[in-house]
Amino acid sequence: MTGCQLVLVEAFVPATAIPVLQRERVTVAGAGTPFHLAYLAAQRQDSGTPLLPECRVYPGGGAAKPPQLHHEVKAELGGAGVVSGYGLTECPILAMGSVGDPDDRLAETEGRPAPGVELKLVTLDGRVAGPGEDGEIRVKAPQLFLGYLDPSLDAEAFDDEGFFRTGDLGRQDAEGYLAITGRLKDIIIRKGENISAKEVEDLLYTHPGVADAAVIGVPDPTLGERCCAVVVPADPARPPTLPELFEFLKGEGLMVQKIPEQLEIVAELPRNPAGKVLKADLRARYH
Known about the structure:
This protein is an alpha+beta fold. The protein has helices at 14-23, 33-45, 67-76, 103-108, 154-157, 197-205, 242-251, 279-286; strands at residues 58-60, 82-88, 91-96, 112-113, 118-122, 135-140, 164-172, 178-183, 187-190, 193-196, 210-220, 224-233, 262-265. It is globular and about 50 Å long.
């Protein structure tokens, strides 16, 4: 119907999967942040030769996307950069970007709601959020599921107006573009103040010594929770230090109370097959 040919690999291992994409001359290369990071790493090993010369766009989704990633992909890999979307198993692809969107929207948002999708963002204190204000994303849509196999779960899953509670936090601008800002359960509460893990992660990603990062809350007898950064260094021989990251984040304008007070260096972050960081595993490891 569309003339689209789909190239599948059994598992994404960069050393074996990327040559398949090159051989097949792919024009659309998915599928999310860990894949895009792998493409960038491969391109940087041979910056003089385009990795995927015929690729027009790099679709994204399934995992958090630091805004800087779009700019790096567009500058180093070419094409339209990262064009990502947002959805859940319960409501697939409820928002999607477009190759015609401005770069700032591609970098910072997941596009606009798909046809027929109705969004409601609700603040933590129960108000309907205004443009640019953070709130839990709730949705009604033609592709929304009818309910869970265990109907006892539905009471908490839907609000009084029939909107599904995604558990994701986001903000929508006046033009309808949706930015994901975190998870309800991914808020670190330090001395009663809410810290968005994604806000800190996005800034950490811009540090030249950081290849990948996740931020978690770990129990603290004084603070309630303290902010812990788990970092994959760009150069394993020269990992960033906690004082170095403190000065960097402070210089980027992050409030001092949001700056991580603990740093853990790892070779890679644990992720599920969709690319989402397994933060429960990290919390168990560093509690």
